[in-house]
Structure formats: structure tokens, C-alpha cells
Amino acid sequence: MRTEHARPIRLSDYRPPDWLVDTVDLDIALHPTRTRVRSRLRLRPNPQAAGPAAVVLDGDDITPLSVRIDGVPMADSAYLATPDGLTIPQPPAGPFVLEIETEIDPSANTKLMGLYRSSGNYCTQCEAEGFRRITFFPDRPDVMAVYTTRIEADRDEAPVLLGNGNLIEQGDVPGTTRHFAVWHDPFPKPCYLFALVGGRLGARTATFTTMSGRTVALGVYVESGKEERAGYALEALERSMRWDEQAFGREYDLDVFNIVAVADFNMGAMENKGLNIFNDKYILASPETATDADYAHIEAVIAHEYFHNWTGNRITCRDWFQLCLKEGLTVFRDQEFSSDMRSRPVKRIADVRVLRGHQFVEDAGPLAHPVRPDTYREINNFYTATVYEKGAEVVRMLETLLGRERFRAGMDLYFTRHDGRAATVEEFVACFAEAAGTDLSQFMLWYAQAGTPELAVTRRDDAQAGTLSLEIAQVLPPTPGQPSKLPMVIPLALGLVGPDGDDLPIRRAGHGPVERGVLVLTRAAETFVLEGVPAGTVPSLNRGFSAPVKINADLTSDDLRFLAAHDSDPFNRWQAVQTLASELLIENVAVIRAGGAVRHDGGFVHALAAVLADERLAPAYVAQVLSIPSEGDIARDIGRDVDPEAIYLARQALRRALGNDLAPTLRILYERLRQDGPYSPDAASAGRRALRNVCLDLLAAPGHPAAIALAAAQYSEADNMTDRMAALATLALHDTPEREAALADFFERFRADPLVIDKWFALQAMIPDPGTLDRVRGLAAHPAFSLANPNRVRALIGSFAQANHTQFNRADGEGYRLVVDTVLALDGVNPQVAARLATAFRSWRALEPTRRAAARAGLERLAGTASLSRDVADIVERSLG
Ligand code: ARG
Ligand code: ZN
């Protein structure tokens, strides 16, 4: 199918590097099309390697202009340059200095890996394997070196020159229009953490005093003129730095910490040492242009990248199989940070929604892989929800199993033992086993076995004995390459909600009190007998979502309504409502497919009304309870023979019913939550807006003209993007003149603002109408659309493919055709983003037969295309496999 068929890379093939690099001196003369790169490496044989070996350096799309060993030019015949590297078959026996000169064209770099230009500025992205597009190097994370980088550029074109570490020298190049800066990073690092930036940039700056009293200069650099919008990011950085000192004892280590925002970026952001580079959507914010959700994401991503300084940079990964070692752990840390800055229960609910919406879906399909994969063909395809989000859950389970104090002791041991090194998952887990004096070998299965465990819980009450028995069986379904599995260790936080609604103590017959209320499952099936349990007690299972599992419990609707009213665990209170909704929706999907009339569930409406009436609950939390499962949630819960159209109809019917039955309450809340001062992005104000906007959306769901008018009025009167966007999103669901008028107004109002125009593209791509296909085709031809900008592609085509279930999955296959066409057009420009888009097909096997056949045909059309990138080919082959 494609010309270069990459061989899989296997964890079991890991060998230490033959050569180590002690120092790297780079001299980079920036030029739009002819950037000259001189690299000087001090190499020495690795004492841990097998013996004398060739020097093999990676390269991608570069050619050597000259190669010198210890200052002496090498004959062309003394080294071998290939498309993927440079080999010196007979290097000196001992340490030597290797100098290589290359020339690269940053303007032609549309893959956005290596050195490229974004809005005229120079920037880099080296993770995972982009450094080899700048110069020849052993591009693997276990080769750690001290870097000194001289950057030179035209003073006009790039007045700002930034690198890793501390600035040690700068000046003009005499007799020219050029200037230079020299940056030195004293901390040894792998080359994927290298970065440089050159351009015309403005900055917001501050100083931070660390816990030991050192002063750090902070800078957030953005396109000149947008400095005002960098203020929130800068404050979030300060909060992150303080939190890491307080929560984990981690202090920042350089004199400078810079962040640069760029408009063209493949991912969210990158933790380069001392010089984070961000997708500008995770930096730029003002009340008029950013929603509350944008603010929350900015805070979380700033924290995430900052926290990598310890979990990722000071301690990095031995090889890319260990990616979760830095990503899962750092996501866990940023989740904890956001929980401390905002509402912990609301953050947990939001994180679990993301986990289920992305990771559970990934785990259930052909792209399922372990948190630590053991083979890959293209590592960029493993920056997944499984590595990140499930990786974070695995760390969270360690904390749940060990308790806070022993967990912290394990972290401390990890930081002291592995600082300055490239570590493995085994080494990480060993720190906890040692610090807690416990055996974690079964726990390692969480890293090795893919798939989402399914728990079946059967309850038996013995009123006479006053006991409640929970029979719990765990099953881990087969996943690609893993037909059968071993039982996992599962920390199941339990609550017992007594008949009066209060929590009861948890005691196991013959064992005594259950430590921290956490049952630890270790076997395929086991029974826990709990004593002192009066009749009418309802178990609250997996509180706080203590384990990333699916639970099938024999709780009745009455039990769930009881939990929805009384559970002291806010997560499970929310979960009870979701489970009730999900059961009703799944039943109605079946009814609709059979041609029947949907069931209206007064009990469910009543449960929601009770939550709405509970004034002790925070608005942000109530907003989460009122947000019923998404179409994606329902499809995932159904799991097979999925009909997206029936799911849409069932969900619409429930939304309409809620909008009608709860109208008076929703209307009162909508008025009561009206903003009373100027906009502020803080969590409490954001929560009020969130609830108010959920009320608006439900009020409008039945389509009453008065509610549409309310949304239209909110759209025009809003003084902030959250309310304006929410009103527009509500209007978008109703085929009315108000919708088209608001969409046209929105474009005119924000046409100069790319991040806001992305919202305009995304919203239209998500409209669940048959007309959306033509609308998206039209928008793809809009002058503002471009395949060169990943944010724009994700906004229009990504939103259509990932968030518009009925229209992407059109029965006539036209939605699939549109996405396949885009993947093919994009593959030659930016294979990484094309591959990500192709993952939209990952659930194709779960569809009903007509759509399944159409989706498969789409994947096969991709598979049959000559010269696909390795990125897309890998996704397509695994999806069909
Ligand atoms: N390490 C970055 C993070 O903070 C992600 C970089 C991924 N880049 C890539 N090309 N795959 O999560
Ligand atoms: Zn990360």
C-alpha cells in the first residue's frame, strides 16, 4: 500500500546507546529558507554498551554539508548519509568531537516538526522526533547532554531570540544587520526538549521568588499587539509554580522561564526546558474572546507544561514506550492543581467525562493499546487518551491504594533517586513499593494490559444477620494482540448509604474496618461481606471514580434515585443521575429503532428537579448534573450495532421533555443567575454562567419561539464570550432565521481573530442537520479555511468527525467521504494532524451494518492510496486490523 513500510519498534529490543553525548554546541543562523545549522557534539563510548560500535545518528529530510572529527574534515567516503541518518562506521575508539553542518528551510516545513515558521516567526517542535529534522543526532531520550545554543538572525526579522536555559551572551554581528544570543542550559536533557524561538514578539513579564528565595524572570511571549491577552496565562504560571512547591516540594531551577505562543502547532503545548512553546489557543484570553472553558484549559495546560519541568525534564523517559511515565504523571499533577484552584468534585466529573468520552472509546476499538505500549511504528500516534488520561488514572489509583502520605513518600523517593536520569515505569513503581513497603507487581498490569475492566456487582442482603454481601466479578475484554487477560488489582472506594441517607461505617465481617473505605479487588471473582448493615442500605460503588472501570451493578432505579438524593460523595451523586439517564436513553433508542413511542420517565425528571432545588449545591455542580449523557456516551454504552440517528432522537426527546417539564424552574434559575458585576473568569462566576447556560439550552430544547428569542437576546447582549458562545450554540441547534443571523454577525464581529473564528467553524460543523455536510464543504472552501493551520483543520473537519455523530455517520457514507478526502489532502502537508483526523474511524466496527460497511469502505480507500505517510498508514492499518 505504501512505499516505505516501517518496521515495528519493540520495547523488548531496547539496548542502551553505544555512544553518549556530553555536550552539544549549536550555532544556528536563522534565515527564512536557508537556515544554517552547525552542531558540535562531544561524544564518548557508553561504558554500558556492548563494545566498539559505529556512530549512528538520526536525520530526517536533511543532508550534511560538512562533517569533521576533532577538527579534521572527513572524506565523503568515511561516512554514510541516508534519508534517515548519518553513520560513521569507523569512529575513533575514545571520546571525540564531531562537527556537522546542515542547511534547512523552515519556510517549507509544513509538518510543523523541527524548525518551522508560524506567522513569520521561527519556532521549533522536537518531541517526539523532530530534532533530527534540524541536525543529525542520536535522537532518543536516554541520550542526555548539556546544550549551548547560539542563535543568530536579522535584527529586524527577529528582534527576540530565545533558547533553553539561561541567556549568557548577546550582541550585534559587526558590519551586518544581524544580531545573536547565546543560551546555556546547565541541566542535561534529551534532544526532544531542545527549543528555540526567533521573531517579533511582545511579552508580559513578572518575577517569581522561589521557596528558597531565588528570583526567576518569567515571560509570556505572544504576537506583538496581543500582550493584553497573555496576562491570565502569566498569572496561571505563577500559581502553578507556587503549587508545585507546596504540593510536591518542587522548586524551579533556572533563572528564566519563558513561554511562547504560536498560531500553528500540532498539539496543545510543549515543555521544552525553560522555553515552553504553546498553541496560542492555550495562552491568549480576554473576556470578549475566550470562554470560561478556555480559561480553565489555559490554566490546566500552563500547569501541565510547567509541571513537566520535574516530571519529564529533570526526570525524563528512557525510551518512548515509557511516555506515560511523564504524561500520565503530569496529567495527574495538573488535575490535582486544577482541583485545588477550582472545585474538586466538578473537576473530577469533567475529567471522567473526558476519560470515558475518549479513552474508554479508544480502549473499546481497534486502536486500543496498553498505557505502556510494547510496540509502535509511529510514536506520534501514541500521544493518546490512553497514555495521558488513563496514565493519570493509574497514578491516581496508586494514591488511592497507598493513601496520601505513602504516595507522597513514593513521589519524594522518585524525585531524589532519579533526578537527572532517564527512567522507566518499573523504576517509578518501585519507588512506591519501597516507600510503602508493599508489593505492586500485580499493579504493573495496569501498564501492560489494554482494555477497560468491567465489574459485575451482585448484592445480597441478609436482614437477619445485618450483613450486605457484594459479589464482584471482573472481566477485561480482549484487545488487539491481547486475547486473554489476568485479573487486575482494583481499588474500589465504597460508601454505604443508610436508610436515613447518612453514611454508615464500613466493616468487613472477619476483617474489621475497611481502610479508607477502599475495597481492594485482586481476583477474577470475590465476595465482600459487610457487617452492621441495616435493611434499606444502598451501596455507593467506585466513589470519586476510584478506578477507571465500567460497573454493572444490580441497583434498581429506586436505589439510583436514592443515591441521587443522598449520596455524600458528589461524584456518585452525579453518577447516579447519569446512570438513570443512560438507562432511559438506551431503552428509548431500542424503542425508536423498533418504531415505537419513547417512554417518558417522570421519576427521572423528579430526581433532576430535586437537585435543581437543592440550594446547598454549587451551580457548577448542578450544571454537570443537568448535562445528560452525550450522543457519544450513549453510543459507547450501547457498544454494538450503534444507530447514531436513533441515539440523537432519543436524546432530543429527553431534552425536550426536560425543557418542558422543568420550564418554570429553569426560567427562575436563568433570571436568578444573571451576572451582577463585570465579567470575571473565576471558578464560582464561571459556575453560575455554566448553570445559567444549561438552563437556557434546555429551555430552548422544545423549540418554543420565546426561548429562541431569549437565546437570540443573550447572544446580542452578552459582554463576554462564554455567554455569547453559549447562546450561539443553543441557536445552532434550531433551524431558525435567528441562527443564520447570529452566525453571520459572529463572523463579522470576530473576523480578525483566528481563535474566535475557529469557534465559528467548529460550531457550524457540529450542527446535527442533514444540511451540515454541504455547509462544511462550503466552509472548507471559505477564504479563511486552510489545511496549513492545525487549529483550523481541527475546528472544521475535526469537530465534524469527532463531535457530529449523526452527520459524520450519515447512512449514505458522505460524511466519511468528506473526512477521507480531507485526510488524503492533508497527508502531504501535515501527516501528524492527518493521522489524528483518521482516528475518527476508530469505532467503525460498533456501528450498525450499513454505516459499518460505509466506514470500512472509507478506511479501505485510505489503505489503497499509494504513498501514504507512515503516520496515517499506521492508524489505517490498525483500524482495519
Ligand atoms: N509533551 C507534550 C505535552 O505536554 C506533547 C508533545 C507532543 N508532540 C508530538 N509531536 N507528538 O503533552
Ligand atoms: Zn505533557
TrEMBL record:
EC number: 3.4.11.2
Molecular function GO terms recorded: alanyl aminopeptidase activity; metallopeptidase activity; zinc ion binding
Residues in Aminopeptidase N-like N-terminal domain copies: 98-193
Domain Peptidase M1 membrane alanine aminopeptidase: 232-444
Highest taxon, organism lineage: Bacteria
An individual GO BP term: proteolysis
Residues of the Peptidase M1 alanyl aminopeptidase Ig-like fold domain: 451-553
Domain (Peptidase M1 alanyl aminopeptidase C-terminal): residue spans on this chain: 558-880
Cofactor: Zn(2+)
Reaction(s) catalysed (UniProt annotation): Release of an N-terminal amino acid, Xaa-|-Yaa- from a peptide, amide or arylamide. Xaa is preferably Ala, but may be most amino acids including Pro (slow action). When a terminal hydrophobic residue is followed by a prolyl residue, the two may be released as an intact Xaa-Pro dipeptide
Keyword Ribosomal protein: no
UniProt keyword annotations, A-Z: Aminopeptidase, Hydrolase, Metal-binding, Metalloprotease, Protease, Zinc
Presence of keyword Heme: no
Gene3D superfamilies xrefs: 2.60.40.1840, 3.30.2010.30, Neutral Protease Domain 2, Peptidase M1, alanyl aminopeptidase, C-terminal domain, tricorn interacting facor f3 domain
Family: Belongs to the peptidase M1 family.
Protein name listed in UniProt: Aminopeptidase N
